[in-house]
Design a protein that fits this description.
InterPro entries: Gfo/Idh/MocA-like_OxRdtase_N, Gfo/Idh/MocA_oxidrdct_glycsds, GFO_IDH_MocA-like_dom, NAD(P)-bd_dom_sf. This protein has 386 residues and is an alpha/beta fold. The chain has 10 helices and 17 strands. The protein folds into 2 domains: 130 residues, NAD(P)-binding Rossmann-like Domain (Rossmann fold, 3-Layer(aba) Sandwich); 249 residues, Dihydrodipicolinate Reductase, domain 2, CATH 3.30.360. It is 32% helix and 24% strand. It binds nicotinamide-adenine-dinucleotide.
Length: 386
């Protein structure tokens, strides 16, 4: 089998930049039949020395502080945009216009107009675009979707999607780009609820309308004295205001008629990546918790009342599980979801047809988040139209 080389680049080398890079290198290990070997051509990073360090560690041929060099580099076919949210629109549009395929992190910009601008640029350029909604790549989530679609739990009546984390709970958590409107956009909405909306749509279809409430629980944080990556601390730094929400609760009405509740919080002490869903149908239910990624709780049968819930360990028949382990109940991890995402992105590029998430998913998610903000302001129900 001939193996094609595809030039890839990464813009922004913080947490996600590293995860995307590692995912590219692992795709040929897990998906050899794809026949593509990503070549790490270039990395762009604003913090002095960080791109060079990434090049040294992972083998990028070129390290730069200017992402525009990547847009102009003919050796680059595809680019990961893993910079902060306020840069997604400018960088995403410019790269698409330069003919680069895009794997861009959620939430794709500061709001729905940014996501739409990137989606339009990708469509106009005829390049492929994938988005970092990694949780739908979990084999158990795909199995849950299949179970729901098969009708085995009956007609879906209602669902809960939760995303609770403590990553911003520490009072010394630094005032990074995430807490500023201009650089982060929304707070927990873009950071976590964006994933929740994508999961809800993936499992249950489009959302028609919603009503939401938001709150800021840690109103002030210390400014970091030096460059940050991920969730840094800044004890003793000059205090500044948190400009976006820590918490959202939201009622959802799906086009199917099902009802839903979405709740997300970034300052939940005692919660570490408590992400998951519970979907109820007229005859059964299905439950998933990210922390037990390959397990589903499934209630099915004809009992209606006192119907037991079984734990199902998903295996090689579910999603892309077989690319990782030969039998059920071998644990997979977060990084594996990104390997699946990288594979689907590269497959979209090689087959020139979307495979996995697209910028349309980003526009739908961002439109729902915008609607949540409007509803939190007005206090009423808001229709969701991308
Ligand atoms: N899918 C997920 O589960 C997930 C998880 C975390 C973050 N994200 C998303 O990934 C993106 C990055 O988040 P992160 O946690 O990696 O943030 P981070 O702060 O760790 O990394 C961002 C990096 O971009 C760099 N950067 C800033 N301006 C730049 C520029 N002009 N050119 C090049 N580099 C620049 C920063 O110096 C930093 O190293 C965000 O959009 C975030 O929402 C997604």
């Amino acid at each position: 089998m001939s193996v094609r080389t595809l030039g890839v680049a990464v813009v922004g080398f913080g947490w996600m930049g590293r995860v995307h890079t590692q995912a590219y290198t692992r795709v040929p290990h897990h998906f050899p039949h794809l026949g593509v070997r990503p070549k790490l051509v270039a990395v762009a990073e604003e913090v002095p020395g960080r791109a060079e360090e990434a090049a040294e560690r992972y083998g990028f041929g070129t390290a730069t502080r200017d992402w525009r060099e990547i847009a102009a580099d003919p050796r680059v076919d595809a680019v990961s945009v893993t910079a902060p949210n306020f840069l997604h629109r400018e960088i995403g549009v410019a790269l698409a216009e330069a003919g680069k395929h895009l794997w861009i992190e959620k939430p794709v910009g500061l709001d729905a107009s940014d996501a739409r601008a990137v989606a339009d640029a990708v469509a106009a350029a005829g390049v492929q675009g994938s988005v970092g909604f990694n949780y739908r790549n979990a084999p158990a989530v795909e199995a849950a979707r299949d179970l729901i679609a098969s009708g085995e739990i009956g007609t879906v009546t209602h669902a809960r999607v939760r995303l609770f984390s403590d990553y911003a709970a520490h009072p010394e958590g630094a005032l990074t780009w995430r807490y500023e409107r201009a650089r982060g956009g929304s707070g927990v909405l873009g950071d976590l609820a964006s994933h929740g909306v994508d999961l809800a749509r993936f499992l249950l279809g489009e959302i028609d309308a919603l009503t939401a409430d938001t709150a800021v629980f840690v109103p002030e944080r210390a400014r970091p004295a030096e460059a940050t990556a991920g969730h840094a601390r800044a004890a003793g730094g000059e205090p500044g205001p948190v400009e976006n929400e820590d918490y959202v609760s939201c009622l959802l009405r799906f086009a199917s008629g099902a009802r839903g509740v979405l709740e997300a919080c970034r300052v939940s002490v005692g919660e570490q990546n408590n992400y998951g869903f519970e979907v109820h149908g007229t005859r059964g239910a299905v439950f998933w918790d990210f922390r037990r990624m390959n397990e589903l709780g499934v209630s099915r049968g004809t009992a209606y009342q006192d119907q037991p819930v079984s734990t199902v360990y998903v295996g090689p028949g579910a999603g892309e599980y077989a690319a990782f382990q030969p039998g059920a109940a071998n644990a997979m991890g977060y990084d594996d979801l990104k390997v699946i995402e990288a594979y689907r992105f590269l497959r979209s590029v090689t087959e020139n047809t979307p495979y996995g998430t697209t910028l349309t998913d980003a526009v739908h998610s961002a439109a729902a988040l915008d609607a949540m903000l409007r509803s939190a302001e007005s206090g009423g129900w808001v229709s969701v139209r991308p």
